[in-house]
């Protein structure tokens, strides 16, 4: 499959490395040095500083949009209108309202549009889903999740701190990953409560997002996303009546990725414990793209699509609206 990449920062580089046997035919970025780097990774000779040329490139069948949040939906929709399959990075837009026309257009287009919820493709997440789907945990009860980093000098001056570009702060940044995973494991949330304060960073967007989400079956998700975590952290705990799954780390600065399964015994007491560790390079980007390409070729349903992004952004919007009251 022939691919264009628009937005050649770090995420664009990761996407270029994850294409596998697929061919990169065009890249675009306003920063030509960044574009040249991604082009070199993908062995691509066509470089633009105009995203429209890459989005409508006659040789591209699929367009990857790895820009700041304000451009994800406009560029993705333009590529869709030019007959391309599209992969846009999370969160997909700055709000649920912004992404809705894209969602409606995608449903009518016959093309596949995926959102980059790559955390679903980490091996610990996939193994956890496999255990859940086997019924081993029994009826699901609740979930706890924490995801955070410590920022860096000047973080409050970057585009993520500008609401006009980002749509919000930590809640819409790392928070949407937690919301997406919680929905994937527990189902849709009908009850939404939360708070998105700014504790540390000198910026007009939130640096922490606290979420209390409830499904119509009463399953609960307690989630916290933070960019004042100081030591990078990922921890997700999934509870069923028959046991618990705990995922720690994402590799790299988040620590070794590990899944621990605590199986409740008939006599209760200390559970039977099994652990899996996943060292080495983060291959979630590769698995996600391979699954997307397969869905395009076979017609299989997508894992992480525009509806998933719209659902996550709707939750974010409700929490932000509650903050203003």
Description:
There is one protein chain. The chain is α/β, with parallel strands linked by helices and 325 residues long. It has two domains: 2-118, Rossmann fold (3-Layer(aba) Sandwich), CATH 3.40.50.720; 123-281, Dihydrodipicolinate Reductase, domain 2. Helices cover 35% and strands 25% of the residues. An eight-stranded mixed β-sheet has the order 8-9-10-7-11-12-13-14, covered by helices on one side. A six-stranded parallel β-sheet has the order 3-2-1-4-5-6, with helices on both faces. A hairpin with an 8-residue loop joins strand 13 (257-263) and strand 14 (272-278). Helix 4 (69-81) runs parallel beside helix 5 (96-109) and helix 9 (175-186) packs across helix 11. The model has no long low-confidence stretch (mean pLDDT 97).
Oligomer: single chain
Q: Decide which structural class fits the backbone.
A: alpha/beta
Strand order of the largest sheet: 8-9-10-7-11-12-13-14
Strand element count: 14
Mean pLDDT: 97
What proportion of the residues form beta strands (DSSP E)?
25-35%
**Which architecture name of the largest domain does CATH use?**
2-Layer Sandwich
H/E element sequence: EHEHEHEHEHEHEHHHEEEEEEEHH
Largest sheet: 8 strands, mixed
């Amino acid at each position: 499959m022939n691919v264009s990449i628009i937005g050649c920062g770090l995420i664009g580089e990761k996407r270029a490395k994850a294409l596998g046997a697929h061919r990169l035919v065009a890249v675009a970025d306003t920063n030509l040095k960044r574009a040249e780097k991604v082009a070199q990774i993908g062995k691509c000779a066509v470089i633009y500083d105009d995203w429209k040329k890459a989005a409508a490139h006659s040789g591209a069948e699929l367009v990857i949009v790895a820009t700041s949040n304000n451009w994800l939906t406009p560029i993705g929709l333009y590529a869709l209108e030019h007959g391309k399959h599209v992969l846009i990075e999370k969160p997909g837009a700055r709000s649920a309202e912004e992404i809705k026309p894209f969602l409606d257009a995608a449903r009518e287009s016959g093309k596949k549009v995926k959102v980059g919820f790559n955390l679903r493709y980490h091996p610990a997440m996939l193994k956890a889903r496999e255990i859940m789907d086997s019924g081993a945990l029994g009826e699901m009860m609740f979930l706890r999740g924490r995801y955070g980093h410590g920022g860096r000098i000047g973080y409050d001056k970057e585009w993520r701190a500008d609401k006009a570009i980002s749509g919000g702060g930590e809640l819409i940044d790392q928070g949407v990953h937690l919301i997406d995973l919680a929905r994937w494991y527990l189902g849709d949330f009908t009850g939404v409560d939360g708070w998105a304060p700014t504790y540390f960073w000198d910026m007009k967007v939130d640096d922490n997002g606290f979420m209390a989400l409830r499904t119509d079956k009463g399953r609960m998700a307690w989630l916290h996303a933070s960019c004042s975590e100081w030591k990078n952290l990922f921890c997700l705990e999934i509870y069923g009546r028959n046991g618990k799954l705990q995922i720690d780390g994402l590799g790299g600065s988040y620590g070794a990725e590990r899944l621990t399964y605590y199986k409740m015994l008939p006599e209760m007491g200390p559970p039977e414990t099994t652990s899996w560790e996943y060292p080495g390079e983060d291959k979630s980007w590769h698995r996600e793209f391979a699954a997307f390409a397969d869905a395009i070729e076979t017609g299989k349903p997508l894992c992480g699509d525009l509806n998933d992004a719209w659902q996550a952004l709707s939750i974010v919007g409700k929490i932000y609206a509650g903050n203003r009251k």
